[in-house]
Design brief:
heterodimer, A: 301 residues, Alpha-Beta Plaits, 2 domains, two-stranded parallel ribbon, 10 helices, 30% helix, B: 413 residues, mainly alpha, Formate dehydrogenase/DMSO reductase fold, 69% helix
Chain lengths: 301, 413
């Protein structure tokens, strides 16, 4: 090699070294992110491929992580769907006053991020005489009920023909035997196609790691419902399955001061919700889309 | 030639290519250094986005896809549009086009790399990529259109890698490429090019809850605009290659591509107008997104300057490409038309298509979206990587094709 050639090689080596170290420097923040990941978590199978025995250590690991990350002792269960249960929800628009106690109860019950005040329920203030959401307002800040208005709380409609389930590329979301559409937060890849597909704005994405003070965490949790979600995955209303699968009512129903909400088993002829469906004129949102919601709205006679 | 020889020759070929990719003029070094710097800025922004979450983007639960998916959509069009060189070359046996068709294939490869990167940066959990691998994860095929997109995009990448790789490798060995090893793939790639952009359109068009996208015209519009942006880019690329390398490129390919371009730019405008008419004339809730896009809704107007710029650029492009310029200025005006069309389609297929699908939201709330600095950095970084891939691919391919770089002992050395 002559001199210019040597110089050229030396320059190339210098350039490559500089480039490589610049790349390492640029990617340094990833180390913080990778520190929160574990091999077990990386290799974890889909919820529906796990037996109860295989799921148990995963639940313990998630509890330990909740303790480490949030400083709270929590219990994460995995209640099974009740035999023969077909959950449905109905909401009486004649008595709803738009107080948003349901949205607040959801926020607390389901361990939502405090900084964004997230909730699975959005209440639209609608104009009397119109079903047009275009004229609704979800950000009202005044005393309720306002004259000339009625209120339309919207949450996951637990569609029987759910577009969100159809579009998910990895089957991270599906419909359970009791009719509840759930998400495996440990399987979701965060592409948000479901969020684009949902016609009811029912899905939420964890744009950042949820922030909740230890004392505000609801320790009664389940794998498919209200455990604190990881960053970068999608979540949604699950009809409080950690409550409803053990015979309790959803938190939003308990919080409602006007009794507008009726929850129950559609397959049970003696249930309250069946009485509503049989004796009230009910309708569903965006029926024309063919999603077959399990959430019904009605007005008093 | 025996298979054993390939076992030796092919790794040697790859090594030679790797070494060659560090050789070049000072202009090459400057260009690659600038691109590397931009890519590094993008990599750093992405690292922050991973660590701190996608709250660093301008996206929200109302507008849950933004600049990344916008650029992804445009990139798929660019990749599909590159096939516009393959069709004349092989279907119509245009010999001059034959010599340069490889540039189109290399562009397709670079564009697909760009698309895949945009998908990766849009994922909340890229660490879970294996969940989408068929057989290993839970691949929701054939139900989810996104799984179709994974198949067609990766398939298109492989097909083009094979065609381009095979042609370059055989030329490197000084052999005549055997038709049966590439011609079937060339014809496959033509059909496949149409499929990538159609499937990408179906991804949006199949969503009943998003009236702005829920249109049968979406896929044809995607194809039309792909055949604008693809040829526009290649016309400029051919001239650039002609002026910076010794590779011979005649007037024929540019003439053919500009005839294609002149037609597709008008078809694209026509479809655009047809869609706007349908959206706005009948009125009602269906037209809310289009109203937001063109004139704003409830006083919110973030997209209005974007779409009118797109329309102005596309109209200007049609004018530049069709007006009877004097002979001496014709090429300059064509180039101007290409630049305008490329930018116009980038907006129209990106910000002008993805964002209004989310505004107003499905509960008819008007929440606006403005890309954040992190999104712009990552976007610039990805395009820089794409340009690096394209530069290297062309830089390696041309001397092999022209016979300057050959295997030792190869025929014709």
């Amino acid at each position: 090699m002559d001199e210019p050639q040597k110089r050229r090689v030396a320059l190339k080596v210098l350039g490559a070294t500089l480039g490589a170290s610049a790349f390492a420097y640029a990617m340094a923040p990833v180390r913080k992110w990778a520190a929160g990941l574990s091999v077990d978590q990386f290799l974890q199978r889909h919820y529906r491929e796990l037996t109860k025995e295989e799921l148990a250590p995963i639940l313990r690991r998630l509890e330990a992580k909740a303790k480490a990350d949030y400083g709270r002792d929590v219990v994460i269960r995995d209640p099974d769907p009740l035999e023969g249960a077909e959950f449905g929800y109905a909401l009486n628009l004649s008595v709803c006053i738009g107080c948003r106690k349901c949205a607040e109860a959801c926020h607390v019950e389901n361990n939502h991020d405090r900084t964004t005040n997230n909730s699975y329920i959005r209440v639209l203030e609608m104009e009397q005489g119109s079903f047009d959401m275009e004229r609704g307002d979800a950000t009202y800040e005044h005393a309720v009920p306002a004259p000339g208005k009625y209120y339309l709380p919207v949450q996951c409609q637990q569609c029987d023909n759910a577009p969100c389930v159809t579009v998910c590329p990895v089957q991270a979301t599906w419909k359970e035997p009791d009719g509840i559409v759930v998400v495996d937060y440990d399987w979701c890849i965060g592409c948000r196609y479901c969020e684009a597909a949902c016609p009811y704005h029912a899905r939420r994405f964890n744009w950042q790691k949820p922030e909740i003070p230890a004392e505000e965490i609801n320790p009664d949790q389940s794998y498919l419902s209200n455990r604190v979600r990881p960053q970068g995955v999608v979540e949604k209303c699950h009809f409080c399955l950690h409550r409803t699968r053990v015979g309790r009512n959803p938190a939003c129903l308990e919080a409602c001061p006007t009794g507008a909400r009726v929850f129950g088993n559609l397959a049970d002829p003696s249930s309250d919700i069946r009485w509503v469906l049989e004796n009230r004129r009910v309708y569903v949102l965006k029926e024309e889309l063919g999603t077959h919601p399990r959430f019904f709205y009605f007005f008093e006679k | 030639m025996t298979p054993q020889r390939h076992a030796v020759d092919y790794p040697r070929f790859l090594l030679r290519m790797a070494l060659l990719s560090f050789e070049g003029t000072w202009r090459f070094y400057v260009w690659m250094t600038v691109l590397s710097a931009i890519a590094l800025v993008g990599a750093n922004a992405w690292a922050h986005q991973l660590a701190e979450g996608m709250a660093l983007t301008g996206m929200t639960d109302h507008v849950s896809w933004g600049l990344y998916i916008a650029n992804f959509t445009f990139g798929v069009g660019l990749a599909a549009g590159a096939v516009m060189m393959v069709i004349p070359a092989y279907l119509y046996d245009d010999h001059e086009m034959h010599d340069v068709v490889i540039l189109g294939e290399l562009l397709a490869i670079a564009a697909i790399v760009v698309c895949l990167l945009f998908i990766v940066v849009d994922m909340g959990r890229p660490d879970r990529f294996w969940h989408i691998l068929p057989g290993v994860g839970r691949f929701n095929w054939p139900v989810s259109m996104l799984t179709w997109d994974v198949l067609v995009l990766n398939g298109y990448l492989l097909i083009n890698l094979h065609i381009a790789g095979y042609l370059i490798y055989t030329r490197y060995l000084g052999e005549r490429p055997a038709k049966r090893w590439y011609l079937p793939f060339v014809f496959l790639s033509i059909a496949w090019a149409i499929s990538i952009h159609s499937v990408t359109a179906f991804l949006y068009a199949g969503l009943g809850g998003r009236p702005f996208w829920n249109s049968a015209l979406l896929a044809p519009r995607f194809i039309a605009s792909a055949f604008v942006s693809g040829p526009a880019f290649v016309i400029l690329l051919l001239q650039l290659v002609r002026s910076t390398t010794t590779f011979k490129i005649g007037e024929g390919p540019i003439r053919t591509l500009s005839s294609v371009f002149r037609v597709t730019i008008l078809v694209n405008l026509f479809m655009f107008g047809s869609e706007v008419f349908t959206e706005l004339y009948s009125g009602g809730a269906h037209s809310a997104s289009a109203k937001y896009l063109f004139v704003g809704l409830h006083g919110k107007t973030a997209l209005v300057p974007w779409i009118w710029s797109a329309l102005a650029l596309n109209l200007a492009s049609a004018l530049f490409a069709h007006a009877p310029w004097p002979e001496g200025r014709r090429l300059a005006m064509l180039n101007l038309a290409c630049v305008a069309a490329f930018a116009g389609v980038w907006i129209e297929k990106g910000m002008g298509l993805i964002i209004p699908g989310f505004v107003p939201s499905t509960l008819h709330e008007v929440v606006e979206y403005v890309p954040s600095a992190v999104e712009w950095k990552i976007t610039a970084g990805i395009w820089a990587v794409g340009l690096m891939v394209l530069t290297l691919a062309i830089k390696l391919a041309l001397p092999v094709l022209s016979g300057e770089v050959r295997a030792r002992g190869a025929a014709g050395e």
